[in-house]
Please model this.
Amino acid sequence: MAHPDPDWWRGAVIYQIYPRSFQDSNGDGIGDLPGITQRLAHVASLGVDAIWISPFFPSPMKDFGYDVSDYCGVDPMFGTLRDFDALVARAHELGLKVLIDLVLSHTSDQHPWFRESRTSRDNAKANWYVWADAKPDGTPPNNWLSIFGGPAWQWDTRRQQYYLHNFLAAQPDLNFHAEEVVAAVLAAAQFWLDRGVDGFRLDTVNFYYADPDLRDNPALPPERRRAVVEPLVNPYSWQDHVNSKNRPETLGFLRRLRALMDAYPGSTTLGEIGESQRGLELLGEYTSGGDKLHMSYAFEFLSPEPLTAIRVADVLAKAAEAAPDGWPCWAFSNHDVARHVSRWNLTPAAARAMITLLVCLPGSICIYQGSELGLPEADVAFEDLQDPYGIEFWPEYKGRDGCRTPMVWTDGVLNAGFSAGHPWLPIAHEHKGLAVETAENDPGALLHHYRRAIAYRHAHPALARGRLAALGVLGEIVTFERVHDTERLFFALNMSDTPHSLPRPAGDWRCIGAGLGTGASQDGPLTCGPWEAYLLKSAEPGGAHG
Model:
């Protein structure tokens, strides 16, 4: 469906749905596509522009849908293609765009492509995956590691070769150096575009290509290791992954994908960059120039690192430098990281401040299901764990199940309204009192603040599409301006539990944003209470200050 504004994605607010955990419609304990359709009115009520649905394709579910066995279908546990069409139709009725998750860097080992590829070294799909001979001593061809633990190579007895898997052994990596592979994945994207989707979230977009010579990754000195994407207990973080991912060949593929997308006006792409060292640099490479990805996100605000005023300013400055004409997308939570209320140990006031900050950031933004309720990370017992990543590195790293527990809709009913059956993950007890229905009936609930904040972003072109200017830090306060042809805004946020004050910016400014609970001082210095924000508007047009 064409949108009257093909650039609708610029500044958009995207709501991420993890389908297993959103709403179960048939009582099997697993969320599904009809369940999403049933609950779309809630999503639309937030004022968001689009939904991003995590994978629902046929899959053995070794990595819960990120191991795809058919790019052009729906797994029966989630429904049918007809159910998907109904979901898209309902979303469009509600004014919501639909992005779906495309997992192109790897498939399931049960995908027909891989099943054929592994039969011999000379079949029609022999080079569709990354195969390599063993070293003379039988060990893997190089030192590359899997994010999920151990070597990134699995021995196959039929081909008498190793195949590459950056994730589980059940997720073999496609060989993007093969033209047939590129054509096949582009055809899969076109299948969904023809079906009416408005774009794609591209999983692990920096993993598409590996060094054709399979050279070793160099070691990463301890002082450069960062727990941005993977925990430091994982040896994967000890390598500089210059050969196993982040390859320059990726840019050529992204240009071909963009050419396809441009044939569908109003469609968009959102790339995930899984990289601890060069995430923002790659964001710039992948989104600059207008001929590759529309937007992309790195893990800078998804990491366990505390979010301080200095940290916010540092990330925004580096992003602006890396991608001056690119387009970032920011999120504080998603299906891969601990929920930010727990990750940053936020008070209720701080949780409110975080969505205020998020809607004022340059670029586009993503909100993960349940964030609007202030859900904390669920504590999932080891015997209930489903995530292979958590099982492998328990207890130092508990995996991703804590952010994937089912959505809570109504307190006091079976499974908080998620399912009439036994849920695939337990409903967190501490979540039940935060259910949607409870929040709707509480005027002070975080849910209403989310709605106000999102509406504020839409009401101000400077927030949605303006450029970043005058970035600064004063103690625990981060400040910046957002500048658009029609308006210029000043934002300040005290990111601490103690009051601070700062001088008013030079010029004629008036306080706005009272609906967001921001400060309302009209004269003199701005006194910021704990986790209080200020939003000021210049009396002069956006361009008047330069």
